[in-house]
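Hi all, long-time lurker, first post. I run a small reading group and we've been trying to get comfortable going from sequence to structure in the token notation. Rather than ask abstract questions, I figured I'd post a concrete chain and ask someone more experienced to write out its structure so we can walk through it together at our next meeting. Sequence below, copied exactly:
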Amino acid sequence: MQRIYGARYTTAAYLVRGLLAAEDFPGVVQGSALDGARGDIPFTAASLPSVWVNETDVERATQIVDEFRRGGPAATLPQVPWTCPNCGEMLEGQFTSCWKCGTEKPAAEPGEGG
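-- Answer (accepted) --
Happy to help. Here is the structure in token form:
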């Protein structure tokens, strides 16, 4: 495995891992277990949370990370809220299925966002 992203915070590392997973690149976050020790031990770039991928995925995964750093499409998630057609639950745009009943988010109509 190869390190492709170093994060200051664990949440950022998991966000990047999620962006990679959305493109079918499995990634691993390392260093998140040390969060509880922040402030008690000195941290270096090597001990901060980081995202690792298989060597065969490095080139494309790096492109996704670079796009995220530039604020491109990989950095944005759909934010248009939607209502579950099955149970009526209101959901935030980043969810692709209803947390309450499991129904998949309907496909957006042409011209709609999200």
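A couple of things your group might point at:
Helices lie at 10-22, 58-69.
Residues 78 and 114 are 5 Å apart (CA to CA).
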